[in-house]
Write a structure and sequence with these properties.
It is a single chain. The chain is mainly alpha-helical and 293 residues long. The chain folds into 2 domains: 30 residues; 222 residues, MetI-like fold (Orthogonal Bundle). The chain has 14 helices and no strands. α5 crosses α14, α8 crosses α9 and α12 packs antiparallel against α14. Belongs to the binding-protein-dependent transport system permease family. This is Sulfonate ABC transporter.
Length: 293
Amino acid sequence: MTAAGATRGPAATRRPKLVLRTRASGYSILVGLVVGLAVWEVAARVMAAANDQADRVLPSLVTIAREGFTGLGHYYSGGLGVSAVGDGDAVSAAAALVYNGLITTGRVAAGLVLAVAVGMALGLLVAAVRPVRLGVSGVAELMRMLPALAMAPLFTLWFGATSTASVVFIVFAAAFIVLIAVVNAVANLAPELTEFPRTLGLSNRSLYCRVVLPAILPELRGPLMFAGLVAWTSVLASEMYGLQSGLGWMLSDTLRFSRIDRMFVVAVVFSVLALATMKLVAVLVGRVTRWSP
């Protein structure tokens, strides 16, 4: 037996372990997008072969690009220094998506920042003060079980068809996610992590700001990304009830008139922005927690 052969054994022939990747790469997202578009196009062609009115129900990608996109010019009335031409103009269509996309993104940004601030502050307070924990934890769990999206019309009724209604609704929907995640993350900390600083005379305020908060940030990455996704679904629900601007308003109007080709374009833009928000949150948390493995 040679030296090389002698080194071969169970370890050398062992099959590699299966690794489950929970983070989607840019390549996998691209592949998923291509597969999804291909399935849509095949289904559209099959339906078109059996029904002359198939384009109104399941339009082909060509129809979406030719009529759906340019038809969005109807939703642009000016504001970006571009003349509002109306249906059939690609420049007006792009301006409509940019203008309403910026409005929706602004609402999401304001609501998400406030939701994270409120959720983290309340979460740390609940974790630190027992009476507050007894009074808030049950309410937070109950509120999390409510169908938040179904309550969007209620916020529009309270605050009117304004951006304020959208922002407050986002805070309502996302803050409880952050709150519960913070409470659970604090509960999962090792006891010595807080006991040792206390022996050095560190106050509760300094302990939670300088020790506990940095320690729980790595565990909050997933919940914060989920809160970002909830913010986008919440703004969509809010904008579909009474508001006259934003991507949700465009989506609602296209559905009302059964313009599936236009709806497809708006939905794609909406999905891209939501995905970008989740990626941005992940990057920001990663930058803040560079020290974490």
